[in-house]
Design goal:
Elements lengths: L31 E6 L2 E8 L12 E4 L4 E4 L2 E4 L5 H8 L5 E2 L3 E7 L4 E6 L5 E7 L7 E8 L9 E7 L5 E7 L4 E6 H4 L4
Antiparallel strand pairs: 1-2, 3-4, 3-6, 4-5, 7-8, 8-9, 9-10, 11-12, 12-13
């Protein structure tokens, strides 16, 4: 059985030290909104609704004999002999991945770029489109062993130069490297 507790407060005040703060005032509150009627406060507060899950990072598999990457009912061909094949042959890149963790992001004008890793040699860069329409579509932009780690979050910056050139700069603290991605090029060069 869920317990229901009702608290009443006289309002917020940050003028008094936290150590000597009266119990009927709150010092700081998060995830609440103050209810008012016609610009007069009623002294009532309401809890804000939390986040909802809108996307999940799918499992990825690479078939090196057919040169195909599959994820979430999507099939991406890649060229034989490119860096993916070389990393698979040397053991730097695994053929399957699950449990990707988002370790960085940046927003573009209408989309979101996500950086993920599974801490098992498969690092990905994703594009989440249709964010403004709330019809979230996840597209894989880049897949390699980039040395990403959950312990080293990605810092990324988006730069809009014109409608044909949109760049994302990112760095990870595990390696001293700043990498540039041109979004229009990455969508066609996997």
């Amino acid at each position: 059985m869920n317990k229901k507790v009702k608290y009443t407060f006289g309002g917020a005040t940050q003028d008094i030290s936290k150590s000597k703060h009266p119990f009927h005032y709150y010092f700081e509150a998060g995830h609440i909104k103050i209810l008012s009627t016609d610009s007069q406060s009623t002294g009532s507060i309401n809890n804000e609704k939390g986040n909802e899950l809108v996307i999940t990072i799918p499992n990825i598999s690479i078939n090196d004999s057919t040169n195909i990457i599959t994820y979430d009912n999507n099939i991406l061909p890649y060229k034989n002999g490119n860096e993916i094949s070389q990393q698979l042959a040397s053991g730097e890149l695994s053929t399957t991945s699950s449990n990707h963790i988002i370790i960085g992001h940046t927003t573009t004008r209408e989309d979101i770029i996500l950086f993920t890793t599974d801490d098992n040699n498969m690092d990905c860069i994703w594009l989440v489109t249709n964010v403004l329409e709330e019809d979230y579509t996840l597209t894989l932009l880049y897949l390699r062993n980039l040395g990403f780690s959950v312990n080293n979050p990605i810092q990324a910056i988006f730069n809009y130069e014109n409608e044909n050139i949109q760049k994302v700069y990112f760095e990870t603290h595990s390696i001293d490297l700043m990498i540039e991605i041109v979004i229009t090029v990455c969508q066609t060069s996997l």
